[in-house]
Design goal:
Order of helices and strands: HHHH
Radius of gyration: 20 Å
Shape: elongated
Largest sheet: none
Helix content: over 70%
Number of strands: 0
Length: 98
Amino acid sequence: MVEVSVLLDRVSKATGELREQIVAKGVMEYLKSKLREVNAEIIEVCNKYKVASARDMERKYESGELEEEGSWRDFFRLSHLEERRDTLQRLLEDTTLE
């Protein structure tokens, strides 16, 4: 595998972009990719229980519409995924390219 700094130099020379710009764009695309993966998992869990969020799922527990037995792991997974989504969104918002 090519060393990262060598690869950056090659790409920089070929595209005329600064190494920093290439890295920043790469990080943004990576974050976007991870966000798409997390969102897909969130949709999968939400569709399974016909909810919009972990909070919605919690409301269904409280109202008795949904039994905790057999679904509590998915509830915690969904909650974790939503936190991860929020973190990724904040990172994307904080990452600005000039």
